[in-house]
Batch of 4 targets.
Target 1
Amino acid sequence: MMNETVHNNLVSNKPVSPIIKVHNRRWVILIIYMIYTAISCFQWTEYSIITNLVVDYYGVSASAVDWTAMCFMVAWPVFVFPASYMIERVGLRAAALIGAFLTAIGAAIKLFAYGRDLFYVVLIGQTVVAISQVFILNLPPKIAVTWFKPSEVSTVCSLGVFGMALGIALGFLLPPVIVKNHENVDDIGADINVMCWGTAIAIAPVALTVLFYFPEEPPYPPSQAQLEGRENKEVVNFKVFAESLKVLFKNKAFLIHAFSYGLNLAIYSAIGTLLNQFILNYFEEAQEDAGRMGLVMILVGMLGSILVGVVLDKTHRYKEAAIFVFLMSAISMGGFLFALEMRSKWMIYVTIGVFGFFLNAYLPAGIEFATEITFPSPESTVAGLLFAISQVFGVVFTIALAEINTNYGTFYSVLGQILILIVGTITTCFTPNTLNRQKAFLKDRILFEKVPDIES
């Protein structure tokens, strides 16, 4: 009977009693999110990791191919404010639907790019997918606080980032395997078309699953903070949204942290875009190695993102974790540069794996730290602003580092990334360590030491 009542509440969104419980469906919701996030993020690097083959087929420059990845960075600062407003206005379910269906539409558009003069269609499709990510990548903290108990929030946020990392990993792995370096360029085009069909077929059922299974919120709030949020829920209009932005831009701790986070994610974006070119500058005909090295970076990084979430749930040492992983990212990037100069492939695989571990670990740690210092500001808006600032830095640094790579060599381009990471480590040290969200969660731990689960 209880299960039936819960199901009816989920479907009809009827008011429920002020009871704090967590719902078992929360893990299914998280898995759905991770899958469509992975498919969206796969498309970020699917062309740039095979830059040389895309250049051969479409007859465009390497810089033009770089824009298949950089359009994702441009979309954030352009669309982050309207997207964040829509998420707060229409809710979690609508944001999930928009993100999933825009991903599907973008993938479908690229099916029509099968022709050597149709590179512009590729860019249109990539741009649509890029816009979808503005509705996708800032959702993990909102999903975490809406569906999960306080002791699970950091882990859930890390698992959300895990979905992003999984997609990027597949974006490094699969394109070099699917698209081969044929002598006949038409065969290269046929392989690219196979890749596009695979993506379109993968996202279609996932988008339908979001449509029919992804509810707005669970029937009961999972925490005291969420209970109070529901009872005092304010209708979001543009004035309310603008006020929340004003609060964020006046928050000194958030601004310093956003700068640091932007530097870190800019390096993430730059190396994801330029890795193929870095490796081919040292090893000829090594595009498959470049893909595998990117895969190692992301797979090991996925482990880092999960571990940091577990550690943060136990320790709540957000600033300390951010400083540590930032510093280790800089040191391991130095190891990667040394391995390149030694022209040792096995050393590159090892060092880029270590680099990926720490670089990916910073992503959820940085989001969680931002959520702490800005609480009770809307989680999706905070994450959206972080990504927007990061993508502005990403465009600037990717273009600059690509020019350095072309004109001065990979050594100086990678050295520039190391210096950027060192600057980010230093600025993180100066970020005020205000844990506002933990103060609210402390009330949960005092009043509700054990939050019961309810069956789906």
Note: Strands lie at 22-23, 453-454.
Target 2
Amino acid sequence: MELESTTITRGTVVDEVTKLKNDGYRFVTMSVVDLDEDSVDILYHFDKDLDVVNLRMAVPKKEPVPSISGVYFAAFLIENESKDHFGLEFDGLVLDFGGTLYLEEEVQRTPFCKYGVIRKDAEAAPEGAA
């Protein structure tokens, strides 16, 4: 089975998500997949009466992604989780845990990012602290 998805961009994500909400779709979750050292795929999953819609966007890891938490408040959880696990940044996140939703402040590496993102303040940390 192949995942059917509509490709979107950082510039259109909030508008596309708003259209789905206005059409009665519920936000299910968001998935993040490493593509390479510099970029990830973000997939947004929606459902209405067992009809699943997926939006896909490839983004550079270092560029902030517009948050959809202003449209679907519950998205703040998965966006914060993606921030913790993949080092992504979200613009307009309604509740931003600053990378500490699951991780303690002293954790410097993103655990699920196979290419290893290190937080900027980790470069100045003493050896063995990361």
Note: Helices lie at 13-22, 75-86.
Target 3
Amino acid sequence: MTVTSIAPGQPGRTVARVRPPARSFWRTAWVRFSRNHVAMVSALFLLMMFVVAAFATSVAPQDPNRVMILNQHLSPSGEHLLGTDESGRDVFSRLIVGARASIAVGLTAMIISIVIGSLVGSVAGFFGGFVDTILMRITDGMMAIPYFFLVLIVVAVFGSSFTNIVIVIGVTSWMVVARIVRSDVLRFRANEFVTAARSIGAGDGRLLVRHILPHAVPSILVAATLGVANAILLESALSFLGLGIQPPAASWGNMLSNSQAYIWDNPLLPLYPGLLILLTVLAFNFLGDALRDALDPQYREGGH
């Protein structure tokens, strides 16, 4: 956009000034996010973990399930970078393969919770009234139940397969997402662009999907990031209690559980999976906090 002004001391002479174009919402969010050095380090760490998890079988230097009793509790060496466990298995290889299991549980459970929570929250916020009351009372009821114990009961009854763990975590962790999405839908459903779309014949489904839900995406992204961290932590807790992913398959949680009996013989054995769980959960939390700051609605620059 170009505007003109009269140059000081030179009547009648105009000077063109070019006003820089306004940044888009997402570009502004990226600039704000990239200035957060902790968030950038967290994002790089998580990217590295995703790559390792995706190519775990190719990256692992040895067979993670190969048992060699004569190699129990070996110290770190060139052949075994982090030593071996109580069964002579390579700890480094099992950590790599365990990353795939733990991250897969976190991501899949998060997707389930986001889908359910977004559906419940958007319907409740958009239609309001009796529908809103019923759905929010169900949400409140679910939140009143200590969901960790609910997960324990369900897994104990139906088994601790990967599928069961993912489904149970996903269907018991959607309530916060539902409340967040409902709040955004309530805020945007009365906006002028929604009224304009309704006036030209847009139906409820189109209004919700095309004009309102896109504004909830930033909040959903933040909830998704924090949801992955919670799911990984919950899977680790289940595995530590013997109700998560079962050996010989490796996950960080069951590696931590198996190593507790040998903490005096090999004190580094529980340190490795515990440290990875800690760093990964912290990275997701730092990333979620940074996204919340970067995507705060007050920094939006108009439009929809």
Note: The longest strand covers residues 2-6.
Target 4
Amino acid sequence: MEFSLQSHESAVPCEVVADEENGRYMLRKADTSGEVFNTQSELIQWIEANWSAQQFVSTAAFHEMMKQLKSI
């Protein structure tokens, strides 16, 4: 699963990758730096601790991403 969220802070979208088949869990932040995680639960925990829906142009897209990430 890959998600692209437009942040209010950057013209470059934030990217989230949760690829269970290949064991890839990573994201790109608004400042274009990134984070890599060992598990999907670590990825979700980081997002919940560091991002909020209000940081993004579409709060609905953020909530939908979280819903999909948690449903796996």
Note: The chain has one domain: 2-70.
